[in-house]
Write a structure and sequence with these properties.
disordered N terminus; two-stranded antiparallel sheet; globular; 325 residues; 12 helices
């Protein structure tokens, strides 16, 4: 039986943390977060709109880019809601069931984004190494199946650790380290044997993120081998330039993710600001920077966003004319 100061998970209330030591500035701190989130939402929604409405972009590369935009928004939406609730002094409390749902969404979309980046690497491999078979290999049906499989794989893999949380008791502090719920933060507060969750979580990272990153590396090894066979220097640079945006997107996701994992594993007693800073970078940077990178490096996306921003009416006319062609 649990001790009197312990509480079962299902009836537990947890408390989110804003920016420790800067509580009086929370309203001001929320301004840059709000601006960054709006930039991310507008950029990703702009990409989705352009890919959906412009027939010239109905190609595998842009379908995968639309998937990336969806996962970016899915990964950042739920944490931003609780972040603003804390920064605007609405409430720091969060119920266990809500916390688990938020964990599920954050981790599912994070794992899905890794799978989408792997699919985009395979897209670049087929486009560069097998250009004549590009359209026949990556059909819209196959792309849809890849997207569904990536989402289901990520969601199903998380179920065991999240279900097990319901059987934990929490007799330590109920104050979480962030303004949203993460699995590694939750098990730190449990008064139960968390060995399964720790080991399963590590295996999950190795099996999913590890295999995805390995697949990306192997894809680029084949791409580089194929590019080096191109005779002209201009041809090699042109082929590599089509991969630049994707390489940036991979670094934007994996570098903060690895940094956050290292902080949680090996810097548990470091300043809380370091944990909070790394967590916000991990969740905020990809949704904000991915649309910027793809709009800068991809001419079709850049032109579509510029037309959408400055000439919305003429943009719809141009798209309609191109569809007739």
């Amino acid at each position: 039986m649990a001790t009197s100061n312990a509480s079962s998970a299902l009836s537990s209330t947890f408390y989110l943390t804003g920016i420790p030591g800067y509580e009086e500035f929370h309203h001001w701190i929320s301004v840059p977060f709000c601006l960054l989130y709006l930039v991310g939402v507008m950029g990703n929604c702009g990409i989705l709109h352009i890919v959906r409405t412009d027939p010239r972009l109905h190609e595998p590369m842009y379908y995968f880019l639309a998937m990336l935009s969806l996962t970016d928004m899915g990964m950042s939406l739920s944490p931003m809601i609780t972040l603003f609730r804390v920064l605007w002094s609405i409430s720091r409390e969060i119920q266990f069931n809500v916390c688990v749902v938020q964990m599920f969404l954050i981790h599912t979309f994070s794992l899905t984004e890794s799978s989408v980046l792997l699919a985009m690497a395979l897209d670049r491999y087929v486009a560069i190494c097998h250009p004549l078979r590009y359209a026949t290999i990556l059909t819209p049906t196959l792309i849809a199946k890849i997207g569904i499989a990536a989402l289901l794989r990520s969601a199903i893999a998380l179920i065991p650790v999240l279900v097990r949380l319901a059987f934990f008791t929490f007799c330590h502090s109920h104050v979480l380290s962030h303004s949203y719920c993460l699995h590694q933060d939750m098990i730190r507060l449990a008064c139960a044997d968390t060995k399964f969750n720790v080991i399963y979580g590590l295996v999950l990272i190795v099996m999913l993120w590890g295999l995805d990153s390995l697949g990306i590396l192997v894809s680029y090894a084949f791409i580089l081998h194929s590019v080096l066979k191109i005779a002209s220097r201009e041809g090699r640079l042109k082929a590599l330039n089509t991969c630049a945006s994707h390489i940036c997107a991979v670094l934007i996701l994996y570098v903060p993710m690895i940094g956050l994992s290292i902080v949680h594993r090996f810097a548990k007693h470091s300043s809380p600001l370091i944990h909070i800073f790394m967590a916000h970078i991990y969740l905020m940077v990809p949704p904000v920077l991915n649309p910027v990178i793809y709009s800068v490096k991809t001419e079709q996306i850049r032109q579509g966003l510029l037309h959408l921003l400055f000439h919305p009416k003429s943009s719809s006319v141009v798209i309609a004319m191109s569809s007739r062609k």
